[in-house]
Amino acid sequence: MFLKTVEYTRPDTVDEALGILGSNDGAAPLAGGQSLVNVLKHRVASVELLVDISSIEELRALRRGAAGALEIGACVTYDELDQSSEVRSSHRILSDVASHIEDVQIRNRGTIGGNCCLSDPTNNLPPLLVALDAQMNIRSVGRSRHVPAQEFFKGYFYTALEPGELLTSITLPGLPPGTGVGYSSLNVAPDAKTIVRSAARVRVDGTIQDVRIVLARIAAIPIRYSTLEDALRGVPPTEDAIRAASESVPDNLDAVADVHASSQYRQDMARVVARRAVLEAVLEATR
After folding, report:
1. What is the CATH code for 7-52?
2. Which helix (H) or strand (E) holds 108?
3. For 249-283, what is each residue's pLDDT tens digit?
4. So what's the architecture of 180-285 in CATH?
5. In the CATH hierarchy, which fold is given to the domain comprising 58-172?
């Protein structure tokens, strides 16, 4: 199916892009276009003006900050996340996850900002950014604000972005000593739909001192697995202890059901992938 005819513009700066988005109700930003173009082709949504932000230098920057923090421009592609020495040295897990997103053509075009702003519950990056306690940096004409990743995702294809706003970058805080991050997914088949996925950030100092576990595909947005987090604090960082703690957690996840998995199966597998993510994080934290 072909696209309907739409107007197109390619601003050179963020301010120029914001001015266009703020003054045109029918305008939408275009970054990699991996999802938006398909949405428009299938007439799921329509726009009057595509504002191509993919070449704005400010949105393609990667900057190191204080205490190991990393700021990633919204138009940085998956391939750039994979290849960046800056990302690999400070947040290796982000490079690893980006390197396995779909195929090379999509990785060359798809962007971290587009992945997040689509708010598709099957997307790879949102649960990881929530686990990493990322900050979403948002601008509009004359205004900027910062939203924690945990509050950015609001529902199916729905985020905290308001009309005229643009996600310009994502800030990842540095990882303290003794901290590791893990990520695990269960798919219907290789390169197919995900049944459930989990990201975990763990700090170890003798025992597990701090833990943050996020699940995706359980609900419309990434959710914290708080009962397992509570069960793991103070536990020795061993596989047996982590397994025992995870098996002690009650089945209280109200998981969605779909053609790929029942609610009960998805809940059971959430426990498994969460444990795998925690074990991977502990292994990194104790190296």
Report:
1. 3.30.43.10
2. helix 104-109
3. 988 898 999 999 999 999 999 999 999 999 999 99
4. 2-Layer Sandwich (3.30)
5. 3.30.465
